[in-house]
Structures
1.
Amino acid sequence: MAYWNQRTVAKRVSCTGIGLHSGKPATLTLAPAASDAGITFVRMDLGVEIPARNEFVVDTTLSTSIGSGKARVSTVEHVMAALHGMGIDNCRVEVDGPEIPILDGSAAPFVCLVHEAGVKVQSAGKRYLVVDQVIELRDGDKVARLEPSDTFAVEFTADFGHPLITNQAFRVTLSDRSFEREVARARTFCFRRDIERMQAMGLAKGGSLENAIVVDEFSILNPEGLRFPDEFARHKVLDAVGDLALAGMPIVGALIAVKSGHAMNQALVRKVLADPTSHRVVRVTAEADAPAIRANVPALVVPNGQIA
Ligand SMILES: [Zn+2]
């Protein structure tokens, strides 16, 4: 019998950086939250709390934004991926502006923040969304499909019709160790040809080689090159983990995605949540004598047959 307790961060930790699209500086703080509170973004400058759930998604243009009333927080997907990948169920993500800092364009700085805070094991058992039926979205050659699986796995195929990013696939079974080792460091990327267009739309104002991979016709412009040969597909996995985290709880299922993006990922989550026959919500039994602080416990992998 497996016992998995909910987790939060053990103390407040902060970092500061600029928003990729707004170019504005912001300070982000991860703070502990109670059992079953889930992840909540808090606009400290406005005093508004926005639950990190699919129903609060207000925009999916190049990044995922959530909002409540006039308050919004954009580019939530990388910090969501880090929290989800590290098995954090409950956390207040406080930010003093409209956009989460982009930092180095990956989830690694947020993983470091979780390590700095430490992980507090809570008394309640974890809740999981267990996929029972295949749910699929198709749009031309784009696919996003959730299938039943014993674990949380993500497979992404990226194809941008570009010599460096053609039919690039990456598949990973998520535990906090595999997320940190294989996914967290993959950076966001863009094409040089798109930068002017994005900036005309008022986006990517904070973009630079410090926080994104920039690709031109034939080459990577970043002097340090890539962190993984398939960093593009790995980043798309990272984005998908962050987007699926807006289901509000860890998913036990496999995401198969081809050329999907934030909009399609959120539409898939919406479709699953709207269809009660597609999934069950299962709360596992908490471990009564769980140590209060325990790092590096794989929290996402649920062995077959132990949660039904
Ligand atoms: Zn991203």
2.
Amino acid sequence: MARDHGFHPVRIKRIVQETADARTYVLDAPFPYRAGQFLTLQACGTLRSYSMSSSPDTDDELMTTVKRVPGGLVSNWMHDHLAAGDRLSVTLPAGVFCLRDTAAPLVALCGGSGVTPILSLVKSALATTGRRVRVLSANRDADAVIFRAALDELAARHPDRFEIRHHLDTANGFVTADQVRDFAGGDRDADFYLCGPEPFMDLTERALLDHGVDAERILVERFEHSSDTPAGDEKEGTVTIVLDGARRTVPQHVGETLLESARRAGLTPPFSCESGNCATCIAQITKGEAKMRVNNALEDDEIADGWILTCQGEPVTPEVTVVYE
Ligand SMILES: Cc1cc2nc3c(=O)[nH]c(=O)nc-3n(C[C@H](O)[C@H](O)[C@H](O)COP(=O)(O)OP(=O)(O)OC[C@H]3O[C@@H](n4cnc5c(N)ncnc54)[C@H](O)[C@@H]3O)c2cc1C
Ligand code: FES
């Protein structure tokens, strides 16, 4: 049985205005979670994920911080319509952008709202480990910096092992590859956590790899959806989909996900984010194997039991059977 990936009502206890366009929602949500994880919420007829800015190791309350995206549907609706006492429908916390069991330094590079999971990780790392922690936080200007006071206060409390460097685009231009390499310095064996706008992620990841950092040591959390690759021609093999008592078999297509195969077979399987975050599309592989492009929702033991995010799963064996609950 996969763990609970359903939706649960939670009450907003209070809302904290962090900057002109970022708010923290303190939720009455007694869920266990790990630093760096996120919730997926239902709003405006769709789903969006938001990381916890709180840490389970230092905060009594669960908090998530949302920044307005210009023209964005859900972030603006939350800012404009939600008040303390309102209810939201959310999944249990999920995600794999978490602390690893290592004594290696933690180096984080974040931009804008990407600081949200980073703050959670930093608080937990400082509270529960002896690791050195360094953060480069990039923002448009001083007014846009979310959690400046919280980060500066942590630096004052842990001067021996926490460094925060604030980068402002208005003063210094966009972060460059040289600045990333300079910040990484000799810490090539650190665990690097990256979270921010897509161009920032691409630049920082490339710069770290060029600096000699092992790809295994770079953990990324992408807030924006990557564009879909169109599926290609038919290839050898079949996919069998079992849903609501119906059983259909279709030929495999190059680059096609199990969800897309199920739709091509005339079925209407559940899905929502199609980004590997919400687990609405979860099903179980009962024959063959498939590989997920992105998995931000399933734990290792669920994958070992055959569970898969069908929106991300591509067959890697000629015959695959997938069963929706
Ligand atoms: C795992 C995960 C964790 C996340 N955690 C947080 C968090 O802690 N805080 C937070 O504020 N957001 C977070 N996000 C982003 C969030 O889920 C939404 O994507 C974001 O709020 C935009 O949604 P929207 O409905 O307002 O905009 P949409 O209507 O979806 O998008 C409007 C336009 O903005 C672009 N866009 C979408 N997302 C972004 C973005 N993040 N930045 C810039 N442009 C964007 C889209 O391409 C589109 O063109 C997270 C996303 C993921 C996948
Ligand atoms: S639809 Fe959200 S993870 Fe697949």
3.
Amino acid sequence: MGVSLEYEAVVIGSGFGGAVMGARLSKKWPGRVALLERGKAYALGAFPRSPHDMADNVWCPDGDRMRRPRAVQRRKERRGHLDGLFDIRHFDRIDTVTSAALGGGSQIYANVFLRPPAAVFEQNWPCNVSRDALAPYYDVAQQVLGARPVPPAEGPHDRRYIRRTGHFQAFARAERLPTALADICVFFGNGYSDGSGPPTPLGVQETNRYGALQTSCTYCGECDIGCNVQAKNSLDRNYLHAAQARYRLAIRTGSEAVRIVPLDAQLQDDPDGDGRHGYRVVYRDVQSGVEHGVTARRVVLAAGTLGSTELLLRCRDVHATLPRISACLGQRFSGNGDFLAFALDGKREIDSTYGPVITQYADHRLFDRLDRSQAFLLQDASYPTQAGWAVAAVGPIMHPLAKLWQVLRYAFDRAYPGRKRNSAGYLMQKLFSHDVSRYSAVLLCMGLDTADGTLRLNRHGYLDIDWPQDSNRPLYNAIVRLGKRFTRFIGGRRYLPMPNWLWPINNNVTVHPLGGCALADSPQLGVVSARDGSRGQVFGYQGLYVADGSLMPTALGANPAATITALSEWIAHEMTGNVPDADL
Ligand SMILES: Cc1cc2nc3c(=O)[nH]c(=O)nc-3n(C[C@H](O)[C@H](O)[C@H](O)COP(=O)(O)OP(=O)(O)OC[C@H]3O[C@@H](n4cnc5c(N)ncnc54)[C@H](O)[C@@H]3O)c2cc1C
């Protein structure tokens, strides 16, 4: 009896690239496509919230623990198993935060959908990839992801009123920087999504156009820790939902791909093969640790910048199953110029715990009057109320003498019972009256860094990053200067960069890692082909594709999910021959 391949395609990873591929390929080959995702699926209300559960909510695999923060490693030793949402890694000079979940980064991202300026594609990109060439794919992606600006508010008493947006825009105008509301992938009701009507009242549930249940955004500010009311247009509400419900995409969560091996004509492993007979993907059941294999004619790597590059590096250099991959693998790593900072304790009411995470951006020489040495965006951010409480606890550090005086007075009042200051009302006022979050702002910046980092394997065979921070100093210095001016603008007491940036750690933190499997016109310039006829294919192999952030040959300056989605649509179009549309 002849043996045959199990699937037409296996997709590894379910972030923006993987979700597009899962949807488009399963539509082409219904019931013949599988998707492997190492993380879990999260149902309505399933994202952790208690301090204990949040401490467990990190990803720490058995093999590669060297680059996990020590506190995470210690917790893993105590708890035995950590397969949570946040994959946090600490490299020399740069830290990374990514996601492990069905839907990838869409479960914790800040929802912004932004096309970079055309000029970004004019330097170090393959000749046939431009913003114009990608325009139809951006359009489809924007419709599927439901990206629109936050709905207008009637005034300060309207629950849709987000205080910080106005302050950020006023600052941009004072600095003569262009500013705009960001398109965000958040559900405000079907009518608002398709432009046919006003937003649905906060908290009301509707079935979206793909048949998934969603809630009109409640403005809780919890976008970055997983939306428990399903108001984010995360990928499990659109691309992945349609693929599974309509085209029988076989989604296997808790399945971490560990090896890709080409097959020969008898479907035996053939490390010297070029993929023409298909591949075996070996994956590990995250719960049991047991390895399984699945065979397919095509494999699409969509495990994110770190995941895809690491898997290919290990297949080339540790397992020797994909030896033909270009020597450029791992090059052109970028943190997309990410820089996180805080303007603390100002005089304006910022109210940082309210509303969707990002609502606007100010353009510092990226779209307008491009200057590549200091091109970046300044975006506002909210954070969950739970974090607001934690920030309030920092208050005594900021006003130590006032707090000491308060404690002494409280002790005095306790000693003389019956005084009115012992009342619950007094306590509530003293505890809650100076909410630091109310008067402090998060400053999210990203821009055109030099994208000259390197992803490589360490001596244990797992991912490491060389990040040439110094070559990006002009960008970071410009970001810090603007952040300090913002702090003065709101009357803030202190500008505080992300603590990792300070001595002695001096690290950047990126939530937008890019590059490593760069798109290029030839294997001398990159890892993945941009040529028509082989879009998205790894040079040297047939039927082995990459579709995720690792494709970017440069920083984008803008938030990358829009471009990752558009490029994946562009690759899927050629793979399937089907013109993509937003109906899925
Ligand atoms: C806090 C935060 C806020 C952000 N805000 C924004 C924003 O507002 N706008 C924006 O554009 N971008 C934002 N981003 C970045 C955005 O989330 C990423 O750029 C995007 O998710 C990358 O998409 P991707 O397809 O490359 O990979 P990912 O979305 O990272 O998906 C990769 C998937 O592959 C899985 N995986 C990895 N290795 C394996 C393996 N071996 N086997 C099986 N599965 C595997 C992972 O678990 C993950 O689910 C944000 C990121 C963070 C962390």
4.
Amino acid sequence: MPLGLDLHLDLTRGRPGRSLEEALRAAITDGRLAPDTRLPAARSLAADLGISRNTVADVYAQLAAEGWLTARVGAGTWVAHRGTAASGARPAPVRKRPWVGLRAGIPSTTVFGRREWTTAVRQAVLDASAADLGYPDPAGTPQLRAALAAYLARTRGVVARQDSIVVGHGYAELLGLVCRALRNRGAERVAVEQYGHDSHRRVIAAAGLTVVPVPVDEDGAEVRLLERLGVSAVVLTPAHQFPVGVPLAPDRHRWLASWAGRTGALVIEDDYDGEFRYDRRTIGALQSLAPDRVAYVGTASKATVPAIGLAWGVLPGWLLPDVLEQRDLSGARPSALNELALARYLTDHHYDRSVRRLRATYRMRRARLAQVTAEELPGCEVTGLSAGLQCLLTLPPHVPEDAVLREALDRGLRLEGLGSFSCEGAPGDLPPALAIGYAEPAPAQYDRALQLLVESIRSASPAGAALARPRTR
Ligand SMILES: Cc1ncc(COP(=O)(O)O)c(C=O)c1O
């Protein structure tokens, strides 16, 4: 069988050979046929165009002789690489050493159990019924929602039923759906923690809501201030404030549940890294205190990999239909096959194994970070290490965040300062600090990333020598 590939070519009238030759040259020159694109077998293209096979073979041979195509006898014909000089494009400068990163919120992608995920995908596809392969339930597949209800109740104490769960692409999508549902119900103002992702604040604002910052102290967000902020909802990271790293104090959990009950407000609980605690103190989900007033949102990105692209919301019954309506209007929904694979991954306990494996890795990394800071960076302090994938490294008062970030960039290290997480126009009260994510580097690069961090902080210090203490042996 000749290789039949569809190929769109604008053939002019006249001699078929000449016309095909010109059409192929034009398609290659203007980039429609990129280098390495495989062309159909001569016999197949000839049949599609209604011309003779020999004409096509002659054109292929001619263009190969001119360097437009490469042909391998018995294998096929491809569009050739013709160098970049002719196109005028300049090659990008190449860094001598690859970039490394210590960015908050970026999970490891190297510890992921690819084999287990492949098994789950394979099993999900083989087991899928004909109905499973059709248009899915807009809230998500029943299999995944059932698996999540059991998992979240067992590991996070979430009060969840299959039919209170909506599956989404990621946290930000679910946040957007909830915010648009609230806006439709008349909400105008939503509180957020003083420090957090700007992209999440923009999602809230894009739903037509005003974002109102709440300060963060050593007990988490100062939630009692909500009393006088006139907001309809608040978005929080109670298990491990992002990026400051403190958990929300238990009395604040209770206060919030009662405030929401009293005022009818909604708490949006972002449980992005709730599974990763390193001490024995488990901090269950806030949602369990007030399931009717809390929209709990979790993500698969930290316990698996972001490329899976799935998250979930456990929603109060009164909010769920409105969120599904927003899902309908958005026209987007996750892939059902991906959901079925995650359901399988959960019920076969690969998800639990993945969390435990990552926890062990992160536990070692945070210990190493604490050790390096203690030994090499006097004057710096690491806090927020008891959970999650990131912590706060507070800089000495005379070392500006910006200077450290510049030094890091020069060394090929991607870092983020606490300042970049602060709400615009409302600078936070915390001293200059770095939000250090210890999950990002590949295992072999972690020590190098820490060494670059030490160098960057030392070089940014006006009294650099004061920071540089020789390592004790
Ligand atoms: C604070 C916070 N919330 C939520 C998320 C989850 O986002 P996603 O589901 O898009 O991976 C992240 C990821 O970085 C995060 O840092």
